[in-house]
Structures are given as C-alpha cells and as structure tokens.
Amino acid sequence: MALNEEAGTERVGSAEREDFGELMRKLHPVKSFVRRSARLDDRLQRAWDRYADHFLLSLPQGDRDLEVAAGFTFDRDFVRKAWGNDHDLIIEVGSGQGENVAAAAAAHPELNFLALEVYDPGVAHALLFAGRDGLENLRIAQVDAQEFFGHLGAGVAREIWTFFPDPWPKMRHHKRRIVQSGFAAQVRHALAEGGVWRIATDIEDYALHVHEVMDGDAGFENAGTITVSLPTEHVGKGNAEDAAALPHADFTESERFEGRVLTNFEKKGLAAGRVIHDFTYRRA
C-alpha cells in the first residue's frame, strides 16, 4: 500500500479494495434483516417467561448474535431428541407473528414444525400460540436463517416455507433479499428427496426476482400450474409505478397454497390491491 503522507492515511488500490471487500463480505455477510430491539408488552413477556423453556429451542451460541456454534448440525437425530418423535419436519423461514405456523401445527399433529424468527415480538407470539394451544409438534428458534441453514443436515426437512419475506424494495437493497442462489443451494441440501420450497410474496418485483433466481436452478423444478404476466425489468421503491409500462413476459407460478392461513399481513396486502404470487419449487 502507498502511504499518502499529506493526508496521513493509507491509499488503497482498486485490487486491494476488492480483496478487502471480499474479506468484509465473508466476515460480515449481507443480511436479509436489520436487527432491531422491541420491548415486549406484558402479555408477550408472560408468554415468553412461561413457555420459552419448553418451546424455544436451545441451540449452541455462535460468536455473533443469532448465530449457532461452528460444528453444530441440525439433523434427524436432533429432531428426534427435540420433538421426541421421527415425524417429517416443516421449517418456516420468518414466521412473523406465528399465525401461519401455529395454525399448520394445530391442523397437522402428524408433522413437526420449526419456526425461525429473529424479532422478539414474533418469537413471543409464536410461543404464546404454542403454549396456549398445546402445540407439542411446534418449536421456535431465534436465529439468523441464512446462517442457520448452513448447519442443517442433508434431507432433514420435508418442506421449507418462506412466506412474504422482506421485499427490500430499494434497488440498492435487492441483494438483501433472502431468495438468492446461495441460500437456494442450502435449501436444496436441507430438503428430503421430492421435498418442496414454498414461497409467497405480494410484491411484483420480488416475484420477478424469485423467477430469476429459481427458474434457472438445475437443483429445482418449478411445480407451478398457472401462468402469470410480469415485467421483465426490475423497479425500485421510487419508480414502482413504472412497472406497468415495462415489457412483460409469461411465467409459471402456483395456485395459492391451501396450507397457508390468511394472516393479517396477507389481508393488508390484498386490501391494498396487491396480487399474491405463490411458488412451489420441488427438489430435483
């Protein structure tokens, strides 16, 4: 590195900047969420205090917040110990307020469910549902899903759900969207043979993003049955209204997943006039 004596700082060349940037990306990978604190109200705090010991998974803590320790593997043996049975497992990535995963667990006692959530209120709501309704087939983990998926054993899950992930609408933030080729590879590894990744979004540009990432992935088959028309160029938060005037093309998507309950979040999207896009990608 050349020393800029006048400024008293080091001047970094372009190649060195690229190397440094790559190092920073490895040390601090792009996250699909922003960690924020939120105080629990009395009702949610009581739910946490009462039910966390039973329904919140205790995972070995990694070096950073919401990460698990290196060397830990979430495999079928761990599922048997944590759930006390050998039932098939469904993982919901980003369970929000827990409405959907709790309803699914109540409707399907023959299956195990794991809710992944980072935010305290969402975790507390899921704990409240699990404890109130006695959902012994539901467990919650407060972890960074992107990091956690690197610890999943091969074929550990029958299905993986990612419903209404953060759309990161600004163009410069699209790289933060959780549906990315690297995460898709981890999902495929975690899925059992014939397993599916179900995705839903009410953001048209995110739907295009999902198609770009997934339709060309040889590890998955698009199991959709309906045709939808989408713009073929991306828009950001500031110019989303321009999407209708862009060139469009036909894409294959799925009918609404009947196993997804109509949550308050989805109701708000429908009330705002947004179209829900459902995807079913089967492990090839």
From TrEMBL:
Amino-acid positions noted as binding S-adenosyl-L-methionine in the UniProt annotation, renumbered to this chain: 92, 117, 144, 166
Pfam families xref list: Methyltransf_4
Record's GO cellular component terms: tRNA methyltransferase complex
Binding site for substrate: 170, 202, 263-266
S-adenosyl-L-methionine keyword on record: yes
InterPro entries documented for this protein: SAM-dependent_MTases_sf, tRNA_(Gua-N-7)_MeTrfase_Trmb, tRNA_methyltr_TrmB_bact
Keywords: Methyltransferase, S-adenosyl-L-methionine, Transferase, tRNA processing
Enzyme Commission number(s): 2.1.1.33
A molecular function GO annotation: tRNA (guanine(46)-N7)-methyltransferase activity
Catalytic activity: guanosine(46) in tRNA + S-adenosyl-L-methionine = N(7)-methylguanosine(46) in tRNA + S-adenosyl-L-homocysteine
Listed pathway(s): tRNA modification; N(7)-methylguanine-tRNA biosynthesis
Domain of life, source organism: Bacteria
Family: Belongs to the class I-like SAM-binding methyltransferase superfamily. TrmB family.
Known function: Catalyzes the formation of N(7)-methylguanine at position 46 (m7G46) in tRNA.
The protein, known as: tRNA (guanine-N(7)-)-methyltransferase
Species annotation: Bifidobacterium vespertilionis
Higher taxonomy: Bacteria, Bacillati, Actinomycetota, Actinomycetes, Bifidobacteriales
